[in-house]
Amino acid sequence: MELQDFKAMWNTKQQQLEQQLEIHQEQLLAITLQNNKSNFEKYLNFAIVGRYLALVYCLISLGLIASMPYEFRYSIPSGLGALAMLFSFFQHSPLKKSNYRAMNLIELQKNITTFRIHTLKHAKYDKGIVLLWFLTTIPIYLNVFYDIALFSSISHILIFILTVTLIIVVTKILPLDIYKKWDKELREATEKLQEINHYQVGDLKR
């Protein structure tokens, strides 16, 4: 085999290898993009379900209030919990479902970033609202279903306060913050999408 033939064969093999690598790279990027779309859609759907659950919790509070409307020690706090949940329902109204699988990379990045900003902005409010709802619902719930008048006994009040305090401490210690988990994974998804974007831009410049 002459040197020129060997060089030609080598160049052909090299081109084939480069083409295969590009195909594998594109397939990997496509899989990564699809996975990011699926994960984002999952988190968004979860958040939307949470929004409508806030409305359900509001209705639960109103139902409990209707059971004992004139026991103001229980009904007024429960009403505040209902209003807080109603507020939560409306503050998450910007969350909308869309066909994210059909979006291009730039649109997906924008939507993920918008969702991250929204969840981080409202995370503290959501936690506070959930805590307030439990604090205002448990006393009236115990009274309606178990005939336990929580506010009529100092010992009951102390047990309730200690239990709530313990729950708050445990949730602070344990890694149960779903918002931090979402933010971390969505930030990583955004970084991966940025890498895909750089690859595609670089590919176009060749």
Reconstruct the topology from this structure.
Blueprint lengths: L2 H65 L4 H20 L13 H42 L7 H20 L4 H28 L1
Model description:
This protein has 206 residues and is mainly alpha-helical. The protein has one domain. Helix 1 runs antiparallel to helix 2, helix 1 runs parallel beside helix 3 and helix 2 packs antiparallel against helix 3. The chain is elongated and about 100 Å long. The mean pLDDT is 83. Keywords: Coiled coil, Membrane, Transmembrane, Transmembrane helix.
Rg from alpha-carbon coordinates: 27 Å
What class, by secondary structure content? mainly alpha
* Count of domain modules: 1
User: So what's the overall shape?
Assistant: elongated
- Mean of residue pLDDT values: 83
How much of the sequence lies in strands comes to under 5%
**Structure summary, number of beta strands:** 0
Largest sheet: none
Question: Regions with pLDDT < 50 over 5+ consecutive residues?
Answer: none
> How many separate helices?
5
N-end to C-end Cα span: 33 Å
> Level of helix content?
over 70%
